[in-house]
Amino acid sequence: MTSPIRFVPRVASDAKKNLSTFIKMVRTEITPLLPCNDFSLNAWSIKGLGKKGDNGKYIYFSKLDVKPSRYYQEGSYSLSRPANIPDELLMREPFRSFAKTLVAYDYEQTKSKSINRKVLALRYLEQALFELNGCTCPTTTTPEVLNRACTLINERVGKCHSSSMGKSLEYVYKKMVELELVAVPSSWSSIIPARAQSYNRIGKEFDLERQRKLPSPLALEAMAEIFNSDSDDALEIFSSSICALMLCSPDRSIEMLYAPRDILTPDWVDKKTGEVGTGLRWYPAKGARPTVKTVIPSMRDIAVRAVEKLRQLSEPAQKLAEWYEKHHRIYLPPHLEYLRLNPRINQREINAILFSGNIRKLETNESARIMNWLDSNNVPRISTKRGSSVSFKDLERAVLKQLPAGFPIMDSETGMRYSEALCLARKGEFHALSIPSQCCFDKVSYGVLQRALKTSSPTKQSVFERRGYMDKDRKYLYLSTHMLRHYLNTLVRHSGLLTEDEIAVWSGRMSVRQNTAYNHESDRDVITKLRDAVGDPSRSVGPFSNIDNRIFIRRDEFANIKIITAHTTELGYCIHDYAQSPCQVHQDCINCNEVVCIKGDVRAETNLRKMHLELTRLQADAKAAFSAEVLNAAEWFAYQTKTLERVNQLLAILDDPEVPSGAVIQLSGVTPPSRLAMADEMRKIRIKPVSQSITSLDEVRALLTDSNMQNKGSSNDR
Predict the structure, then answer these.
(1) pLDDT value at position 694?
(2) Residue 227 in 3-state DSSP?
(3) Is 640 buried (19+), middle (13-18) or exposed (0-12) by CB count in 10 A?
(4) C-alpha span between 423 and 692 (Å, rounded)
């Protein structure tokens, strides 16, 4: 449809009637995600609709905890058709119809790629409704039901993902309220708290978090050994080469899996050292601009070798991609081209086309594999005593359906074709016990890389377990691609060679604030970095940069130095040590023996001459007041005269041509008034006693009474 269909709620109707109208309208006007889907089906194809790198093919409207992989026909796992889930394990009605309608409507309006997460949130809501209400009518949704759904999420989902799942549930409920599908709508937010992000740099908690997010040195050494070995195992070559490239620059796994075949840029030469480096073309997955990430000279050869290994590994799949871009027919090797003329082909010929590439006698397991492939892809076959045969056209049609989503375009954001991708493989390429397909290919999913780096089940061993690499606790080593990203960010921050802005660009981030989550420098690392920078002008600025050229003195000698600290004042510098005591003459610096002037300091000299003019005027005013016998004028005149004398002394020295510029000037014979001395003088004032013959309280009371009477009498006289 050219324009989106928007549902307008009928405000006057009740929730159930509104729900019925909503379901009817969506089923009539909207296609459920893809043309191949239908509202009557309980499994919908999402091929090409999910997030980049998401290899999921179907969504299932099933109950909570149902695993579709257990219900494929004949027990065979195939992504070419959905699992056959029993009716009793599907969502209960009427919630199932509502879930299908909401998913289709939401995708029509938003084109959101997080379809799987919303379906999972609907499963939790359906289970909570049934537990609390005994039915699954969505109109009966209340905060109590939603809180129960959050409890179910907490019971099944780890702390890392439970908060985001709660937000998906919150999104679903808000949609229901907007569409007026809830009988008693209310404002509700997920009760699952977001995981607290700690930025502490000390303590056991930080060490454990650091250990969890950074790769172990043993795992890095083991992966380096695998990379440098002569292994011909496809999984080892692929995983070690990917890790090698991700140690050249901090990348996301999805960016690596969607990297172009011409990822390497021309070499560059360091002008200072003459060393040769290179660069990698990257298209960030989270909105940042495409960039070329610098590869330092020490990692240049590793990057080149890793790219070459990946190119050689993907070369057969690349040839298939180029073939299907030019021909809309099944690929056949030159020596099997004659089979196109055969209307029907037998098992040996089928095996040659699909797997082996040569017509030969089949083993028992090969026959079973062929039959399984034909049945899984709905290829009609005729069985006789001499074996099974199929129509060549039917086989060709089934193979062409196996072309990857969006073919020939692999990345719709960049327009990159499958034939231009670095990470491409034939189907079955990474299965240790099977032969890769001769005519089918696909992009490499993240699951392949994940299983290679960490054992997920007894039948899917990691490359570490295959080679027997263990840690000191006799546990198999493991890695994750995100660990390598954390590792490089921590290393470059510890080196101090890049700014925070440069680290963000190098890592493909849109915001510098995201750098903090990747900073795993401990307090010990920071102290070591500071110690290493002392005395190195290339790594520090200021006093620390030339500390090696300074002359050090003993601690007891330092204690004898009078000038320990200094700060700027209007007249020069104050050398009072505030760590020992507060200032005793605040804002009267000229009458203090701890003020220091520097000849040539224009600012200080200007202030001093302004002070001279002001003091001259104030002294004249004080003298006039003294002549007029104004109270306390004598003390004020004495203070202004003393201060003016200090200023004149300083100006005389500053104006003396024999005193060189830059000379440090400190007046001698200045004894500033001390607040402590004044307090001590107050304690020395002697108070004359009223009488030395007082011996009792009655005499004190009598004296007080007489004193009060005298005060009253004097008041009456006035």
Answers:
(1) 59
(2) helix
(3) buried
(4) 109
Q: First and final CA of the chain: distance in angstroms?
A: 106
Q: What is d(CA 515, CA 529) in angstroms, rounded to the nearest whole number? A: 19
Is the predicted pLDDT of residue 50 greater than 70, yes or no? no
C-alpha 83/C-alpha 504 separation (Å) is: 43
- pLDDT band of 49, cuts 50, 70, 90: confident
Task: Respond yes or no on whether the N-terminal peptide bond of residue 408 is cis (omega within 30° of 0).
Answer: yes
Res. 345: pLDDT tops 50: yes
pLDDT at 638 over 50: yes
Please give the single-letter amino acid code of residue 662: G
The most confident of the ranges 6-10, 269-273, 383-387, 503-507 is 269-273
Of 252, 206, 209, residue with least CA distance to 51: 252
Q: Which residue has the tokens 């990857």?
A: 404
Out of 463-472, 522-531, 666-675, pick the least confident. 522-531
Q: How far apart are CA 253 and CA 480, in angstroms?
A: 9
- Secondary structure of residue 509 in the 3-state scheme: coil
- Separation CA 410–CA 422 (nearest Å): 11
Average confidence (pLDDT) over 267-282? 87
HEC secondary structure over 467-479: HCCECCCCCECCC
Pairwise CA distance, residues 501 & 512, whole Å:
6
The token pair that represents 634 in the structure block: 């004598």
Which one, of 206, 212, 198, lies nearest residue 483 by Cα?
212
Closest residue by Cα to residue 97 from 21, 140, 40, 16: 40
Helix (H, G, I), strand (E, B) or coil at 597: strand
The yes-or-no verdict on residue 718 having pLDDT over 50 is no
Average pLDDT over residues 478-486: 88
Tokens of 586: 């605040």
What digits encode the pLDDT tens for the residues 573-616? 787 877 777 887 777 888 887 787 877 777 888 889 999 999 99
Residue 668, helix vs strand vs coil: coil
Q: Are 524 and 531 in contact (CB under 8 A)?
A: no
Number of H helices, E strands in the chain: 23, 16
Within 10 angstroms of residue 519's Cβ, the number of other Cβ atoms is 15
How far is residue 154's CA from residue 124's CA, in Å, rounded to a whole number?
Answer: 11
Element (H, E) at 389: strand 387-391
Our CA angle for 238, 241, 246, nearest 5°, is: 120
- Please tell me the distance from the alpha carbon of residue 509 to that of residue 495, in angstroms, as a whole number: 20
How many Cβ atoms sit within 10 Å of the Cβ of residue 252?
Answer: 19
Specify whether the CB–CB gap between 443 and 321 falls below 8 A: no
Say if residue 714's pLDDT is above 90: no
Percent of the chain surpassing pLDDT 90: 35
CB 121 within 8 A of CB 169: yes
Look up tokens 């600290």; give the residue: 565
Strands 276-282 and 268-269: antiparallel
Contact between 387 and 374 under an 8 Å Cβ cutoff? The reply is no
With a CB cutoff of 8 Å and minimum separation 6, the contacts of 164 are 117
Give the residue among 154, 153, 42, 19 at the shortest CA–CA distance from 92: 42
**Contact indicator for 491, 503 with CB cutoff of 8 Å:** no
If you average pLDDT over every residue of the chain, what do you get? Answer: 82
DSSP code, position 354: I
**If we measure between CA atoms, which residue out of 604, 596, 590 comes closest to residue 643?**
590
